[in-house]
Backbone:
């Protein structure tokens, strides 16, 4: 992992330093904060003609599983760092050390890529990440299949409950079940194609992440 942000413009460096500081302020359990993706690699995009800007992709690692699972806290963190990152947006992933190391040891390609290409924004030096294992294409396929079977199957279950509620005329319950189903279909696509999913439950944000993965994935979820 790298430690320098010298490849980024001054404004982006200041933004990332402020973001890391705010994460630590609001979530002291954040023992490791990594920048990954296009800003870490140096190939971010700012297209003035379309208005598209690459996200700041951040991975936070905690020693405590309970801290990583505290979604209400991380949603507050996301709300706090959003104005700091503007006009760019932030994708925030949070994992505990044990879970992340398990994925690294099994060669999960998304996490291996993060570790190999990321830039360290903060490190409390409380632990060491596992040595990444290179996964074979067959192992990658097996991991993707696990994700698909779990999340797509779960989505189908919620969709069945949506249809049952609709038949009974329970529209508010049906709407909730449909939201849950859609979120899980998005999760299945993201995990199969990228190996990860964000903490957000907002369907418009998930749709924006899924649509670029494959042309057909932009069609089933019209947002108009």
Residues:
């Amino acid at each position: 992992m790298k430690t320098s942000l010298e490849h980024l413009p001054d404004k982006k460096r200041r933004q990332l330093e402020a973001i890391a500081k705010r994460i630590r302020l609001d979530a002291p359990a954040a023992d490791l904060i990594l920048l990954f993706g296009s800003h870490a690699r140096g190939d971010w995009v700012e297209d003035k003609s379309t208005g598209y800007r690459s996200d700041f992709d951040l991975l936070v690692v905690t020693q405590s599983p309970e801290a990583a699972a505290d979604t209400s806290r991380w949603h507050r963190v996301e709300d706090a760092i959003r104005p700091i990152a503007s006009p760019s947006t932030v994708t925030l992933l949070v994992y505990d050390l044990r879970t992340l190391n398990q994925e690294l040891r099994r060669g999960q390609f998304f996490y291996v890529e993060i570790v190999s290409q990321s830039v360290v924004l903060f490190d409390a030096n409380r632990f060491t990440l596992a040595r990444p294992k290179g996964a074979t294409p067959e192992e990658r396929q097996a991991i993707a299949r696990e994700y698909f079977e779990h999340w797509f199957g779960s989505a189908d279950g919620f969709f069945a409950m949506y249809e049952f509620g609709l038949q009974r005329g329970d529209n508010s319950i049906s709407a909730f079940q449909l939201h849950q189903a859609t979120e899980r279909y998005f999760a299945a696509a993201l995990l199969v194609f990228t190996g990860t999913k964000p903490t957000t439950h907002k369907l418009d944000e998930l749709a924006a992440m899924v649509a670029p993965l494959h042309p057909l994935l932009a069609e089933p979820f019209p947002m108009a």
